[in-house]
Amino acid sequence: MPISGKQQELADLLVAARRNASQLSSLPDDLVPATATEAYAVNRIVAEQLGWEPLGWKIAGTTDGVRNKLRLDGPIYGRTFRRFACTSPARFGAAELLDPLIECEFFVTLARDLPPRDAPWTLPETIAAIGEVHAGIEVAECRYARAALPPMPAILADGSASGRYVFGDSIENWSEGLASIPVRLEVDGALRREGIGADVMGDPLRPLWWLAEQRRHWGDGLRAGETISTGSMTGMLPVRGGQHVRACFGDTATIEITIDP
To answer: Exposure string (b/e) for 189-204, b if CB count within 10 Å is 16 or more?
Structure first.
């Protein structure tokens, strides 16, 4: 799919920001993609130009609260990169993070491809492609400064603020259902957010089905080995240096992150 000169210009800016771990202080209006389709095309070009090994995809906007806050009509998504994946307990320096937001999610890794095809995927077919599920935290980051965020299509072009991915324990009984698993998010020992799997589109595996359909229409599908973060059950919680984050997924898994000053 050919892209315009403006789309390429935006992609170049986002590639440089990714490589330099920096933010754009502002974005000219004429570089904001006109549509979500144009924005996702920019995200594809950014990933291709970076040449980084993909981790998979992130999905956001999967709860009513997040969609209302971001003024979204439905979910959004973006490419993620394996170099930003790690396991709990994790430690980051505050200076290396870009306006970090903590999001408690399920990380779903595929065992089989969900390739492009004419017929729509069904939810059972999508579930059958799953290899494993982990408790996870995305430390979302944006290449635009939070104080000067551009319109949503520019954020989609940035991979919907894809950031770092902290893997917790494997959810061994995931096939029995994720909707009933509660999540508690604590910062420095104080409860800050609570949620449950069902908050994410009724079932955290439904966003995966949605993404499989999105990528089927794009003509590339989803691939075995890719990990998809299926959307936050605890919203988007800003964190800062000197804080310790702990997330409990029922009595099944715990994830811990320390943000050094």
So the answer is: eeeebebbbbbbbebb
